[in-house]
Design brief:
About 3% of the residues have low confidence. The two termini are 30 Å apart. The chain has 10 helices and no strands. Helix 2 packs antiparallel against helix 3, helix 4 crosses helix 6 and helix 4 runs parallel beside helix 10. The chain is mainly α. The radius of gyration is 24 Å and the shape is globular.
């Protein structure tokens, strides 16, 4: 596999799709596919939580027994509203639907970004595959949570732990083992999930996208080394952009407006990066089905 050629092809595809003034409207529309569900859900959930839920919580928890204040409860509810709003990207999967179209298309031009219902239903096909591959991660998390609370029934979300105590060291070991197993599971699941998502767009079948043996055969055709190297290349670019955002967030940690702007800029910048990832992964997937070029030179005369 010629990684340089694939990267170059994905870069050219992304550059022609976004980095021109006439392509700016498409970039804005795709950004709105991500931002609008978040903003609408944030507005609705904030209104409901602050107007309906906060008075109830104030009556229950604002007293000497709990030590909460109305302001602290309001802040906690607002954080909860932010989490709910971010989940709306999953429940209103317009951007996932467009990723479906990119991976499905073999054209050198970006696919159409209209027909919202089509994007919505295609996005949910992507979501079903994501949920399927997330099952091992969820199961491991639940198993470790049950083990932890079985061994330490007195532990809670806000338990303080003396790391010098033997019991605390045991707790740390359990936590580290959980992190290690979870990390390895995420890596292994991701190897199959990425190819499964592209295979979904090409085959149109949820069953084939979740058929582990079939996905493993495709990865074998690509080459495990080449495939893992491709994921490493994508991860480096994603982590680089995310690191820059985190660094800027630390600088403006106490400025709420600046944080909101940074998140918006991050989402805006991630649109072409996401398109690059999808195109790059699609071309890596295509290498599994390319017929090797035969050398027709006859060496009998040498």
């Amino acid at each position: 596999m010629e990684h340089a050629d694939i990267i170059s092809g994905a870069y050219t595809y992304t550059k022609e799709a976004f980095f021109a003034l006439k392509q700016l409207p498409r970039w804005i529309v795709l950004f709105l596919y991500v931002a609008l569900p978040i903003l609408v859900c944030l507005a609705i959930s904030s209104l409901i939580l602050q107007m309906a839920v906060l008075p109830v919580l104030v009556n229950v928890f604002v007293n000497d027994n709990y030590g909460f204040t109305a302001a602290s409860l309001s802040g906690l509810l607002q954080y909860f509203a932010v989490i709910l709003s971010l989940c709306c990207v999953f429940f209103v999967p317009l951007i996932q639907g467009y990723c479906y179209r990119i991976a499905k298309s073999d054209s050198s031009e970006m696919p159409d970004h209209t027909n919202l219902w089509g994007l919505f239903f295609s996005g949910w096909r992507i979501n079903f595959v994501i949920l399927y591959y997330a099952i091992p991660i969820i199961v491991i998390s639940l198993i470790y949570a049950m083990i932890f609370y079985y061994l330490f029934p007195e532990a809670g979300f806000y338990t303080t732990i003396d790391v010098l105590a033997l019991e605390s060291l045991f707790t740390v070991l359990i936590t580290l083992s959980y992190v290690a197993v979870e990390f390895i599971t995420i890596i292994l699941v991701s190897l199959f999930a990425f190819v499964g998502l592209v295979h979904l767009t090409r085959s149109g079948s949820l069953a084939e996208a979740t058929h582990i043996r079939g996905i493993a055969d495709i990865i074998k055709k690509i080459g495990w080394y080449d495939y893992i190297l491709s994921l490493v290349i994508m991860s480096i670019l994603f982590l680089l952009v995310t690191f820059i955002l985190i660094l800027l967030a630390q600088i403006f940690a106490y400025n709420g407006v600046a944080i909101v702007i940074l998140i918006g800029v991050y989402l805006f910048v991630m649109i072409p990066i996401m398109v690059f990832f999808i195109r790059y992964l699609s071309e890596v997937y295509d290498t599994a089905f390319r017929v090797p070029e035969e050398d027709d030179v006859d060496f009998d005369d040498f």
